[in-house]
Amino acid sequence: MAEYRAPLTDMQFLLHEVFAAEEKFAAMPDTAEVSADLIDAIIEEAAKITEGLLAPVNQSGDQQGCQFDAGSVTTPDGFKEAYQAHAAGGWSGLTGDVNYGGQGMPKLLSALIEEMYFAANSSFALYTILNTGATLTLSQHASDELKARYLPRMYEGIWSGTMCLTEPHAGTDLGMIRTRAVPADDGSYKITGTKIFITAGEHDLTENIIHLVLAKLPDAPEGPKGISLFLVPKLKVGNDGELTGEENNVRCGSIEHKMGIKGSATCVMNFEEATGYLVGELNNGLSNMFTMMNYERLSMGLQGNGLADSSYQVAARYAKDRIQGRAAKGAVAKDQAADPIIVHPDIRRMLLTIRANVLAGRALSMYAALQLDTARFHPDDKERAKAEQLVALLIPVQKAYCTDRGFESCVLAQQVLGGHGYVAEWGLEQNVRDARIAQIYEGANGIQALDLAGRKTVRSNGKLLQVLLAEIDQFVESQSGNSALQEFVAALTSCKQQLQSATDQLLSAAADNPEEVGAASYAYMELMGLTLYCFMWLRILAASLAALQKQENGYDASYLDGLVKTGEFFVARLLPKSKALVAEIEAGAAPLMALSDEQF
Ligand SMILES: Cc1cc2nc3c(=O)[nH]c(=O)nc-3n(C[C@H](O)[C@H](O)[C@H](O)COP(=O)(O)OP(=O)(O)OC[C@H]3O[C@@H](n4cnc5c(N)ncnc54)[C@H](O)[C@@H]3O)c2cc1C
Hints:
Blueprint: H1 8-18, H2 21-26, H3 36-54, H4 58-64, E1 67-69, E2 72-74, H5 79-88, H6 107-120, H7 122-141, H8 144-156, E3 159-164, E4 180-183, E5 189-199, E6 208-215, E7 228-233, E8 235-237, E9 243-247, E10 250-255, E11 266-279, H9 285-321, H10 345-377, H11 381-416, H12 419-422, H13 428-436, H14 445-458, H15 463-478, H16 486-512, H17 515-549, H18 557-574, H19 577-587, H20 590-593
Parallel strand pairs: 3-6
Antiparallel strand pairs: 1-2, 4-5, 5-11, 6-7, 7-11, 8-9, 10-11
The structure holds flavin-adenine dinucleotide.
């Protein structure tokens, strides 16, 4: 049976030793009061909720799923109580705008909390992160009047939010949406259309549901430039911010029956002349939504990391317990009929692959979250601008690479358990099913790769990459006197050079043939992901080695030694995959485009 333990030591090590979070927060007036003690207190409290309330209803929630009846959705047993505790603990407004009841906490902190939520119960986590994303969009783009009317209740967790983009014929290509918004005499709009796959579109966890809906005015320009964003409440709200008692014309038509995240309601939502309010300027809806998408995409990467970590915990425990076969060098557990499977190199390969990717993925997510915080809170214009450039480059990689590694990790952990991983009891088949969606929603991973290679690299002529490479150079420079690290620094430098030359190749190939961007994109995203994981591992290694040299460091020596050895494993066994990725990029578009459509 799966039992999730929040990885507090790993998180605290990354926060305090690797990223010196308290120093970063101290440099920004709006976060200056977020001390090391406060950080620890918050994540320890979140650990209690995830272990005590969310994890216990994860497997039962999967088995029970959501129930649909005549437009209403009932969530699995225990979700309502857990949501009430989440709201009562103030978690709904953790990163929210302080002017409307939010707590203004940095994303770096909430990212770790999201990871724990996803690890303990991904279905439940989705209800909470959709609300966070919706409040973020409103706080950045809505009028003061809309903010005052809606944000406080959403921060209190009494109301929740959704994101209504997808339509039956328009998923990736949102320019084709058909939902219409017709201006009404009172300044509001009448919204009509059908949205599909809407997470948390209908449920029984909150009193009201606030939908953020993309729609087009009748005379709007064609394509993405004609999309506007509207707030559409399920129950109407008066100017005083109280419910009027009147329902809006928004109905849930059905819920999807799907592979995983069964406790998360995925809804068809029908809007029939529903009253909506414009958020931001007309025809600028998609770009306003992008504010939220950077945060939501980060969350999907955290879903991958969280599920990978909870799978690792089960597999590592199992591998020490399960006895099968003897160690290659002779029996280890001589008093038993066989040795624990952890003695076998192939089992270690799987466990170490997961552990190395979980730690690097968590560090990369924190690094990206730190850039979001710097872009939001830093007093210096230049620092903010640099952070925005890094966010643009990092987010598609973090989303795609962490969710791919997340799914792969869940499958590897399942493999460690053999047939016992395939049956429901241990929870790993659920993790595999729950992790799969993170590679698809919030922009399928192929689209993230295209965004990275096309918009972020070719269109910027490689300029955004230079910002990241300068960060790596600065780190390498800072470690020049650290002889213990030099072997790893050489590996990072070589990977960085491969990335630079693959980028040069991409830029020159794309200038001759536009198909080269899409052809190179996935391998290019993976090469960037691997390079970033290497960069993160170097930072973890530097911090671990430094801590080992101190008399009093607050960490167990065996824990630090384990970090160093896992980093060595990453560099020796996972990093060499970069060479295959370079070869794939160099092969170009021709082998992909050679077949005619009929030949498939
Ligand atoms: C469980 C679940 C929850 C969801 N929650 C929400 C939600 O809350 N709100 C919401 O609005 N949506 C939601 N979605 C929708 C989700 O974001 C979309 O499914 C996703 O963006 C992909 O769109 P699509 O399914 O229409 O696939 P398509 O757009 O049809 O894409 C199919 C395939 O083609 C590829 N592709 C498409 N265009 C290109 C291109 N130009 N170049 C190369 N490859 C391309 C894609 O990468 C993908 O692999 C959810 C979906 C699911 C399954």
